[in-house]
Amino acid sequence: MNAPLSAINCFQDRDGYLSWLSDTSVQGPRRAAESDALTEIASKADVNLHCWAHGGRARLGYSKKGALASGYNWREFGQCSECGAITRIRLVAEFIDRAVRNYLNPTIYLTEQLTPLYKLLRQHHSGLIGSEYVPDRSLRSKAEQRLRAYLGDPTATLRHEDGCALTFADESIHLVGSFDVLEHIPDYRQAIREFVRVLRPAGQLFLTAPFLPASEATLVRAQIDPTADNGIRHLLSPEYHGNPTDPAGGVLCFYHFGWDLLGELRRQGFRSVALAEAWSRETAVFGNQQVIVATK
Fold this sequence. Notes:
This protein has helices at 14-21, 24-42, 87-100, 116-121, 137-151, 188-198, 260-267, and strands at residues 7-11, 48-51, 56-59, 67-68, 71-72, 108-110, 128-130, 173-179, 199-208, 219-220, 222-224, 232-234, 240-241, 251-252, 255-256, 272-280, 285-295.
């Protein structure tokens, strides 16, 4: 039996996306279905889904932490009862699984390794490569020990990669997945150039990052500045995200991206770039979930 697919709509620009987002004939039924599902899982009723992260059926989980004043945070919650994958992980796993059907023995590079997504995908994709950025060499040994314990594999090795200077050969990777990483790279344009360099012709980049769908311009939160304290000038209150290689610390967020990110991807060499919006009751991909898809 074929697995259900999330419905995907692709948008090239801000106006087209916002117009679609305001279409009540589309959004009304979606929000109603999400409300019904939320009521059911909050009351501990079974809501079934197909989870692309582990490739099977499961129940949709509920967490009180996901209930916000603005609505339920589907992106970071909506766990799969079997593998624990939250909505955004299940969605990007679906994008990758759908894409690899076009290749024989594809090589997939993820800009993460000590994460649930990497742990799940390595069970299904022999050509998967993951990495973490650990600039402090003194932390790499501990991070590798953590990786081995997390994966349950005493032979696992932590791969260190700098997003601005990848060690892969030119045109050696079929698919690149960078999920909530680009906002932490001060020179994100150089990272994009590296993605273009290592991807094979017609290879694809799947990208997520803090995204402002109503804004054309990227919001710069911090900048590298040698004259500032610690070499960083904060233009807004510092925002730190979780760092799997250093759980006690955090990693600074430099950007919340706008639609100009899609233009930058095109300028750096991607021939086709779109904001892909996904939704599905069968896969329990609720809310406004987005993945930027760029094809070399």
